[in-house]
Design goal:
single chain; 110 residues; alpha+beta; three-stranded antiparallel beta sheet; two-stranded antiparallel ribbon; 2 helices; 23% helix; globular; binds zinc ion
Length: 110
């Protein structure tokens, strides 16, 4: 089931010490990890509503984890950055691109 938010929680950025207006949804696919107290965090999808600055910072951090430049307690496996509003057609097109494996066209194009 999709994450949902209370309306009052959507008016300011989820970034630490940031109260700017959110512009983006950052969706991360995370592997299993441990928090700072050693509790297991289940693998899954995380959603954050972020202003432009925090979105860029979070994406840069996530890319560093993916690139294994930094060790993270919760490994990032993938991410999607989206605007807050999408058209129905854009949602449909995005959903089509998320599949279990990369679609291979077996017909030769040459
Ligand atoms: Zn922010």
């Amino acid at each position: 089931m999709a994450s949902s938010f209370h309306a009052e929680d959507t008016t300011s950025c989820f970034g630490l010490h940031c109260d700017r207006e959110p512009k983006f949804r950052l969706i991360t696919l995370d592997g299993e990890g441990e928090d700072s107290e050693g509790n297991t965090i289940e693998a899954g999808v995380g959603i954050a509503l972020l202003c432009r600055e925090c979105a860029i910072n979070q994406v840069e951090n996530a890319l560093e984890v993916i690139g294994e430049k930094v060790q993270s307690d919760v490994p990032t496996l993938g991410l999607v950055l989206l605007p807050l509003q999408l058209t129905a057609d854009q949602v449909h097109q995005l959903k089509e691109e998320i599949s279990e494996s990369v679609p291979i066209n077996r017909k030769s194009v040459h």
